[in-house]
């Protein structure tokens, strides 16, 4: 069955790889890409999404979304690991693909309102501002969503503060709205995405595919690996966001545990923490499937399989 999806993202090297995978794989009908401020400003994340689609020949409409979080300003943009453009590394030809005129939040509302109940899967790989805004503006969209497969959070440590991961910290109120919407969320958190490390050996492997997708992957990853090394001292770059798409293609890549997750929005120290009740201490409704383990071999096989589908 082909799954109708909307990718809500802030590209971003790992977001771009998620687009690359979902955009070509026959399991998906990518209805649209919505962009949000996160790794970079909204103008830059939109330009990056357009460049990726144009380079890959993906005929997917791109809708620009929220330029600021719902309530509290989040962390600064992530130049350290994604560069000044938000997608440093590749050199794209001049951009002819245009963003759509409709705002991403309006697009989400319009598309979901026209859908059947539980018809569309959302894949957020950035802060959840667009999705939360759409839910607040038009709560009837909630029943139209089949499920949410997102990158964000962590049941262990964060990467912006000891408690919080970037996408959640960047708009914790939005995450609060989405996690309390009643929609089931599969959460690809840092606990697994930090293990999806792209080492230089992976880049060499993908380079052998020798097509437009592998060229983009290689150009992105050479920068991303260097930046991660300079920032965190890591030898490999964590490909957080593609874990969402890899999970939908092959759920066996991950081990998932169902539990209740709350978003901390009141604490100073732990603002933006995803409190995953893995031991069912609260007996609250299990609103989340939290990824607790990843088979990295299967993960890279899935990435490679997608890249090979391009001409
Ligand atoms: C998340 O933050 C961004 O920098 C990445 O694209 C990913 O979505 C990881 O914390
Ligand atoms: Ca992202």
From TrEMBL:
Q: Which domain of life is it from?
A: Bacteria
The UniProt entry, under Pfam families, shows: IU_nuc_hydro (PF01156)
Which GO molecular function entries does the Swiss-Prot or TrEMBL record give? purine nucleosidase activity
Q: Which residues form the Inosine/uridine-preferring nucleoside hydrolase domain?
A: 5-301
| Keywords, comma-separated and alphabetical | Glycosidase, Hydrolase
One cellular component term (GO) for this entry is: cytosol
Query: InterPro entries recorded for this chain?
Result: Inosine/uridine_hydrolase_dom, IUNH, Ribo_hydro-like
Q: Which GO terms are recorded in the biological process aspect for this UniProt protein?
A: purine nucleoside catabolic process
What is the protein name given in its UniProt record? Nucleoside hydrolase
